[in-house]
Amino acid sequence: xxxxxxxxxxxxxxxxxxxxxxxxxxxxxxxxxxxxxxxxxxxxxxxxxxxxxxxxxxxxxxxxxxxxxxxxxxxxxxxxxxxxxxxxxxxxxxxxxxxxxxxxxxxxxxxxxxxxxxxxxxxxxxxxxxxxxxxxxxxxxxxxxxxxxxxxxxxxxxxxxxxxxxxxxxxxxxxxxxxxxxxxxxxxxxxxxxxxxxxxxxxxxxxxxxxxxxxxxxxxxxxxxxxxxxxxxxxxxxxxxxxxxxxxxxxxxxxxxxxxxxxxxxxxxxxxxxxxxxxxxxxxxx
Length: 286
Prior knowledge:
286 residues, five-stranded mixed sheet, 6 helices
């Protein structure tokens, strides 16, 4: 399990019974996590200072229940990066802290390239990988279909002192955008993607990531430059193993010299365990 421990004001306090208790700059939140199938050391009701909890509905979905007044915005820091967070739908806060491991890889890979690097970040959410790339000196194109996510990514860049870096924020369908970039013959040295488990195709059809990931990787190969640097896939899809993503990358890029590492990412907790939180495959071209 790979993880990064450089968060300055975020931690996982306790886990158990399908829930995790986290602290963001002093604000304690209780959120569900289906992978936590063990019992907690003590019942969460024993924690008297939980600010809010996300409670799932028996009919699907869920909502936040506040026990204290949670600020409309609160911030956490990783290295020099600053993330503005809030209570969002689907139990989210606006950042996935476990991604810090991948951000560190991105920064090292771009820095060590010692050349100009252009990055395409697809399904880019609130911009963690975008900020890491820009911090390392890359030119970044940030694509997300949700305007609010692109706006929050821009805000995070400003908070992190990266407002003037060469970052483009584009609200668009990632597949349609990539197809247009291929027609325009625009190229990128690195591709980052964190596609959702379920989504909609260019014609509005529903799709599952397991059924579409191979085709998606093949499509994005068309926007890689003649001297590509890396390709990173991250997934939170249950059942999509790291080795599966590695195999996809190795098959698609079998005619190009490369090395692919696949791994689980997680978050260390104050209980002394590492909470599994996703899977990634990182390909570097050699």
